[in-house]
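Hey, weird one. I pasted the Malate synthase sequence into the form twice and got a warning about non-standard characters only the second time. First submission, copied straight from the form history:
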Amino acid sequence: MTQLTLPAGMEINGAIEAGYAEILTPDALALVAKLSRAFEVHRQELLAVRVERAKRLDAGERPDFLPETAHIRNGDWKIAPIPAALECRRVEITGPVERKMVINAFNSGADSYMTDFEDSNSPVWDNQITGQINLRDAIRKTISLEQNGKSYKLNDKVATLVVRPRGWHLDEKHVLVDGKRISGGIFDFALFMFHNAKEQLARGAGPYFYLPKMESHLEARLWNDIFVMTQNELGLPQGTIKATVLIETILAAFEMDEILYELREHSSGLNAGRWDYIFSCIKKFKLDKDFCLADRAKVTMTAPFMRSYALLLLKTCHKRNAPAIGGMAALIPIKNDPEKNDIAMGGVRTDKARDATDGYDGGWVAHPGLVELAMTEFKKVLGDKPNQISKQREDVNVSAADLLDFKPEAPITEAGLRYNINVGIHYLGAWLAGNGCVPIHNLMEDAATAEISRAQVWQWIRSTKGVLEDGRKVTAEMVVAMIPEELLKVKALVGEGATYDRAAKIFEEMSTSASFAEFLTLPLYEEI
Ligand SMILES: CC(=O)SCCNC(=O)CCNC(=O)[C@H](O)C(C)(C)COP(=O)(O)OP(=O)(O)OC[C@H]1O[C@@H](n2cnc3c(N)ncnc32)[C@H](O)[C@@H]1OP(=O)(O)O
Ligand SMILES: O=CC(=O)O
Ligand SMILES: [Mg+2]
């Protein structure tokens, strides 16, 4: 095993495989250590603020727009100009940082490509470091792969790269600074910046990021401070880094202007991260006796609270000259069933047509097979224009009550309950085996969609409204009885695998325990 030269006070306990030392260089690790020392205390403070806020919400407090930042919401300001490479983002493909998928995504024909260390990635040590190797090679256009008789390499024209580091809640447990685990997000960001920022600038783009799962503008300020220090350390002009923030928590929806304002020198807009958003609503109002959402499949972008959120995001972005990027329909191409495939493709088309017609500048797709049809829907509205940021939505008026108008509440069905249990076990089992994104029942499932499934089961057990349409109350006993049955169905699809037994156990613990695990990936991370 290769020996690394580590900065004073840093320990690495992950295996150092071939090629890792090229990423974990002394200077790159020095940047990781510097940022960690400068910002770890504040990250922990902000995570503690989340816990305190959650307690107040559990006790019945309702979020509202912040009085102390009204001057920012009412002020007449814009974000700094967007670089040319980020002006046209009609279709953004997303996917884990796995080598083959990296090449396929770059070549997919999408305008941009969000490579993902978050929702679609299981953060096993190997995924984190080989992900960095893959991105380094892709940016330099030296990436290639021979697999299953196919040769993979990059086309001449590829998508613009945007990187999503892990959220504030996730640690990188394999790296300690002064005896403490560091932030996973800072680790992903710093390594990527160190190795690639200058190379990207030399090639006509730049270091562009997606920032996940934030709950407040103060969390965005932390990223901004990190950008400023990193640009100084690397000798880059301030404002070089650009970041799109995912509005994917109900609390962030009340601070969209403030988040853009904090990042105004570094902003490249907002994205409507719908799946984590739904999860966040369930998590934040899980104890509210009046809150209970219907079967997961019924909670769509046309649900009142989702529609309000999507329109407010769009209006807020365009008012500030910022791109508004739509989220992802979880539908993916269905092989060997043309009829079902037509329905799925129709679903994606409707989703993208809605976003484009509303005024969004682009939207996410999960699979290369969806790029063309999503592009067609955006081109129908945009024509030859790269975006429609000039389209102001002053007609949109969204109140706090609109954001909190949680419907539909019905139906909750046995099929919906079993679906959640089945998806939960299947996804957790795959994640434990190192795969963070899986097709399940013809849908893309990742950490955000799986969170909805497990959170609904927990909440239906506890809410008096958690009643199946045939009148039976959802109970812990009912769920515990269904888990082995659903585990058998999962195994019939994926085969035997110890991780699925473990997943079923963890799913049972999580659904029936008195306390609600903040993120399912937190207890899971201790297992990998
Ligand atoms: C809530 C959120 O955060 S959304 C963002 C996070 N989620 C994602 O990014 C979803 C990413 N998508 C995926 O991982 C995959 O599409 C899955 C798991 C849903 C389905 O994967 P598969 O069943 O392997 O798809 P399928 O077999 O149809 O793939 C066909 C080809 O497309 C490639 N492909 C599929 N999805 C992607 C992708 N997102 N990026 C790049 N290549 C892809 C496959 O690698 C495969 O390549 P090959 O023909 O060269 O072997
Ligand atoms: O990250 C995206 C989401 O929908 O969650
Ligand atoms: Mg998300």
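That's the output from the first submission. The warning seems to come from a hidden character in my clipboard, not from the data itself. The longest helix spans residues 26-58.
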